[in-house]
Amino acid sequence: MAELDFRRARSNAVNITLDSDCKHSNLSLLDKNRVVSKTESKVSREVIVIANEGFSERKQYWEVEVGDRPYWELGVLTQDMRDKMKKEKFEKLPEGRYWSLQFSGGQYNCHGKSDKIASDDDKCPVVGIFLDWEDEMITFYNVELSCPIEFIHLEFQGKLYPFFNPGGDKQYLGVRPVNVSSPLTSL
């Protein structure tokens, strides 16, 4: 059942591009889909890049290559939070609403959910993110295993933007294209 849910989620693939005007100054974009820290630095939550695309309805899915890096954070944030961060030049993470999956110290943590994540899977080189407005949920998938890592219920109306934090280890984090022949609506 988990693999079928994964395939169904993946059939809603969208293209994501990183916004060069909406990123922390310590980050460099290698192209429209890859980001890297300019210097090895202490991990900080506000060192992020935000996508050009925002979503407020239906279903969207995208994948991110995180490799074997020791820290990363992926998620979505509100348009209001995106606008504040852009205005304040990413100096601090403003109060606002965002939902994310973070990997640090060999453990997963979710922002937007209080439960601890129990996972034996400490190696997840590619994370799939499924934003489902119909079921009011964001689900994070281990793409190699075709199974969920965690999900978070969303109680929000408005536009959400994907964001990406590559950590401070000078390894790139990349949004990768997802090739799907047709949506799996009848499964």
From TrEMBL:
Gene3D superfamilies: 2.60.120.920. This is B30.2/SPRY domain-containing protein. SUPFAM superfamilies: Concanavalin A-like lectins/glucanases (SSF49899). PANTHER family: E3 UBIQUITIN-PROTEIN LIGASE TRIM. It comes from Pelodiscus sinensis (Chinese softshell turtle). It holds the Pfam family SPRY. InterPro entries: B30.2/SPRY, B30.2/SPRY_sf, Butyrophylin_SPRY, ConA-like_dom_sf, SPRY_dom, TRIM/RBCC. Residues 1-182 form the B30.2/SPRY domain. It comes from the Eukaryota.
